[in-house]
Structure formats: C-alpha cells, structure tokens
Amino acid sequence: MTERPPPGSARPGGRTARTRTAVLAAALDELDAAGLDALTLDRLAARSGVHVSTIRRRWRTVEGVVVDLLAQHYATIPTPDSGDFRQDLHELAQAIANFQAAPRNYHLIEGIVAAAAHDPGIADLVRGAFRARTEHVTQLVRRAVDRGELPPDTRATEVIAALSAPFYYRILILRAPVDARLVHTSAEAAYHAAHAGVFDAQAPAGGPSR
C-alpha cells in the first residue's frame, strides 16, 4: 500500500503552490483573530477562497494545516554558516529568539503544542515538524565536525536540542519573555558541552565519571 503523504505536501509551483499559500495565510490570520480553538475548515475555506474539500483532501484536518504552517514558519529561520561553530550557535540562538519574539509565532507554537498534549495524532504531526527542522539545522554541527572543531562522533541532533530546549522551557513552562542572556547562555552551554565531547556517541550513557 502506498504511504500517504504528510499534510500539505505536494509538488511546488503552479496552482498547488498558490493553494498552499492562500490556505496557510488564511490560517495565520484566523489564528490571530480567534485562536486555534475557533479554527475550522469552513473558516479557512471562506477566508482563503479555497474550497473546503480541497483543504480536507490536502491537509485532512485543521491541525494538519496548522502544523504545515508551523513548518513553513520554521523554514524562515536561517541556518548560519559563518565557518565558526561557536559563532553559528550564537547566530542560531538569536534567530530562534527573534522568531519567538513575534507574538503570532509565539501563539502559533503555544496553540499547537497545547493541542498535541490532548491528541496523539496532532502530537505525531508536531513531532514530525520539529524533527524535520532539527535535522535541517544539524548541518551546522556536521560542518563543524568536518572542520575538526568537534569530535567525529558528535550527535548533531542532541547539540541542536540542547541549544533549543531552553527557549521552549522559557516560553511554554515559565511563560516568560526570551532575553539576550538566554540567547547567550544557551549558545555557550551547547558550545562548551559539544566541544567537551558530551554529545559524543561514544560517551558513557550513565552518570558523570569519577
């Protein structure tokens, strides 16, 4: 049996691209206006001008649309390539902070994470979106390994997770704003841990060595 494509996926260009652009723009406007709880396929259809059956066929659910919107927004966060691993981490941390500082981005993340907590299907979609974004960004870690800045067996996804996690803890758990100190400490902590081999695949999985 052929595996079904992820929500919103299709070949780029032409009517397909215009449909996706219209529906995601409508979703963002609706989220700003009324929030995730009030979002429906009918409202998306009315605002976007795309027939509800087309939206249902491509994304299947409102949550599928919102997760695709989240993935689109994450794609706007640049992946640094300064030639220096430490600098790249600081630039990435600042880019994450800038992204989360926009109120509509903050509300988008908050809404979809809250929905995922109550629906395993949404949780799977959110996990997929975050994993795809993390995998894309890991290229900056792999470049650092190639340059000899990090141990060859460094787990790139763990480095990016260590950098990113404090931001989500700050906005989703503490519900406090991201500031310059968080940008600095997150980047520095990830850098020193990676440089010390903490994320090396060969490192012991137990507690600290004595």
From TrEMBL:
Pfam families membership: TetR_C_11
The protein's superkingdom reads Bacteria
Q: Where is the HTH tetR-type domain?
A: 17-77
Q: Which keywords does the record carry?
A: DNA-binding, Transcription, Transcription regulation
Where would one find the signal peptide in this protein?
A: none
Coiled-coil positions are none
Q: Which residues bind DNA?
A: 40-59
| Keyword DNA-binding set for record | yes
Q: Which PANTHER family match?
A: HTH-TYPE TRANSCRIPTIONAL REGULATOR RUTR (PTHR30055), TETR-FAMILY TRANSCRIPTIONAL REGULATOR (PTHR30055:SF148)
Record-given protein name: TetR/AcrR family transcriptional regulator
Q: Which organism is it from?
A: Streptomyces rectiviolaceus
